[in-house]
Amino acid sequence: MQNYQEMILTLKSYWAERGCILQEPFDVEVGAGTMCPETFLRVLGPEPYRVAYVQPSRRPADGRYGENPNRLYKHMQLQVILKPAPENVIEQYLGSLEAIGIDLHKHDLKLEEDNWESPTLGAWGIGWQVMLDGLEITQFTYFQQCGGVDLELVPAELTYGLERLAAFQQNVSSVYDIQWNESWNYKEIRFSDEQQYSVYNFEKASIDFLWKEFDLHENECARLIDEYRSTKSTKEQTRFPLLAAYDHVLKCSNLFNTLDSRGAISVTERVGVIARVRTLAVGVAQSWLDQQAVITEVSAT
Amino acid sequence: MKTAEFLLEIGTEEIPDWMINNALKDLERLFRQSLEKHSLDTAVSYRTEGTPRRLVLVVENLAECQPERQETITGPPREVAFDDTGNPTKAGLGFVRRAGIDISELETNDDGRVSITRQITGRLTSEILAEIIPEIIVSIHFPKTMYWTGKSGPRFIRPIRWLVALYNGIVIPFELAGITAGTVSYGHRRLASKKIEVSSFDDLRDKLQQSYVILSGDERRKKIESEILTLMPDQLRVRTNPRLLAILVNITEYPTPILGNFEKSYLTLPEEVLETVMEHHQKYFAVEDKDGCLQPKFVAVANLDNDSGDIVRQGNERVLRARFNDAQFFWDADQKRPLVNRAEDLRTVTFQAQLGSYFDKTERNQKIAVGLAQALSLPNEEIRHISRAVELAKCDLTTELVGEFPELQGVVGGLYAKHQGEPLEVADAIYDHYRPSGVKDEIPRSRIGQLAAIADKLDTLGGLFRLNMIPTGSKDPFALRRAAYGIIRILVEGNLALSLPELCAMASANENTAALEEFFVERLRYYLREVRGYRQDEIQAVLNASSQQPLEVVARAEAIAAVRSTEDFELIAVGFKRISNILRQIDNLDDFSARVIDEKLIEKGAEGVLFEQFRALSPRVASLKDSGHYQEALILIASLRPVVDSFFNDVMVLTEDEIVRNNRLTLLAQLKKEFSTIADFSEIVRSND
Fold first, then answer.
1. Is B347 on the interface with A (CB under 8 A)?
2. ipTM score of the complex?
3. Is the CA virtual torsion B299, B305, B310, B315 positive or negative?
């Protein structure tokens, strides 16, 4: 039986063999692999792309101080983007499960309707949750829209829940019992993380500080979007730091989640704050599309 | 004419279970329409079957080509087409040229126009099929569709991956979404990976069966049902759940039930939680004994041929254990803060941006609920219970268990209230206050629960109407129709004599109060029609009389339906219609009914008899109506039938003498007014005998 890191290595090489770029985790905190620029921005526009990466995903409100066997503040996703989705995308996906040793002749696997939607990112898609013997192991989505824009090529997004998959494979009932490698288990490596961030997110985070930080990132992002929009020179447009602007969107999103878990977002604020983050996300997405078009145009002439 | 079988299989990725049957119906409907249009529908029969990965249509006895038919083209009048000397004019020659015929073939039709009739040979069916199929496939209605070949590509529920289209065993050539129709199908995704060559429907069905796909939904259902029976230990059975069964039938191609167990200790969790986890989240059947007691067992239905290695059973058992553990964990965690301490927390839970938090909503709900209780003059103790139930009703929204199982909101609150020592009446009311949540759901069991439910729904309706967020067409994001319909049902089935104006006045819908009342009347109309099954004219008749109090409206409708078949009833309706028609010709109708009948002007004979009868019956009808004896009152009114008939036979209403005429109109107007308070008879349409 494979341990946790062997399973990850197997999945990564499986997708590398199918033309995926192997990326490393994105270095800004995110709530899901979808939010990384490697997904959010790359799915836009007419260029094909294939990428796979493990993304630690932070969900402050899901933290349980390391005491719940199935809930984590930070869990690992394997994110695979195939743009455009190949015709045999489901068969390829099933092949990845076989690769880590799941004999699909002996297990029950169902694709159950589950359409993904993220109002914060102005994004949605059609798809399923993949159920293996009653356990949800993957979210499978054909993206339709991102940043409020209809996608030209339809990508398939596969998001594997790595802890669940490993717990299933290793036949353990708590994620903390997952064997990470031969000598270490998940608890030894991640418990403090879970405990301390739960304490921070639920008890100690300074609300005042988080709000200030939120405002700063928001202003910086909005300023950059505005500046891009008023940039006339093609040369300046092509080198404009929209990727840096997007980092600030992610910062805002994570700060919002932390403030939320801290119980700091009041009734009247909540909807408004989500709208603020969406405005930034959509603003960057649209500018990015514009910039890509300019770059294509410049390189054509 | 030779006929043959047409077979279409649309191979797709997994279609959501609940859409499959409707898609099949729509596929058949579209084909029916199209074949009719092409005159290919003679003697054909249709059959559809589906699984998550395929929609199959078979048309039997489909003719090889369209029937031959005559076509007549009509041209200008003969005198225009030919001049006086009998030679064709320009117009005549033009027609002949356009029709592509010789001048000698021209005929003249009955209207004096030149025309040509000719035989048209029918087109080949296979040709027509190739044209219509792609159009039909993309026209199948699905609630939500996607594109997958690119932004301008076709839309369907999920990507189409193969197409089989055979007429008489021969491929109908067409292309859709980059796929060429052919003879190749595919079996079970995991158990049979080889391509299947098919030549007919029977061939497809048999080869799929060998490839672990049971094409027929009925057969999949039978397999599930019969194998469950063999699995079940003595004295045990699965808890009936037709909805779950329907889902499982359409989420599998080769369903195999598997019996699993869980630790007895989880049976201490509330049954509602166990059931929700098993049936809703995991799609398992719950197992009970012959007394209906839940057992520590479940039945999962795998999309697999067998589980001889017990792998699937063990996997599902592990998942269920984890979910029950979670539920137990949440239940225990939630007890640390009783409901009553959570009331303040509701300030952080948004109800609707402009309508504030659930804390605000709770305050409003309470005002309405107590107001309703007072309107019904309920005893003080009951009012206190209502107030307490409403105060705690939303507090479960901040619990972990509801966070995990949102569908159990209300239920969890009720269970916690009971556990935390609230009076049973209060706990039950909290438990029930979202009811009825669907057409088949029961209304709250107690009057306390009923008023709590009405208050909650009424506040939602009032608030959103106030904000002008009134449902239009298919858009009803806050499920306001369901809320209003729920209130109607509670009023009627809970026997609550509350009027719609009274309710709407409490709803604070401001300038949209009238619109809200109208909205309720529409739901009441729906209820009378769809649930009670009254006829359109009966419904209109009772609503015209008054639509204020649903309980009483339904009683009046019931009375009409009961007496409708009696001899005089529909005939008196004819008389009332005549009265209405006459009165409609006079502008100032209200004036007449308000005037005083001058007895001295009443003629002896038919008019006199009608007047006497009216005077005699009027108080009796009124008192029967007031005491709710609608049937008796209606029978009494219907007994006027012969008198009304002879009045119209013998008396001229619109006579020359204005004073007499006005007096007669006054008599009719008053008669109509007095006797239309149960139902407006003039709406009743005579049944065809």
1. yes
2. 0.93
3. negative
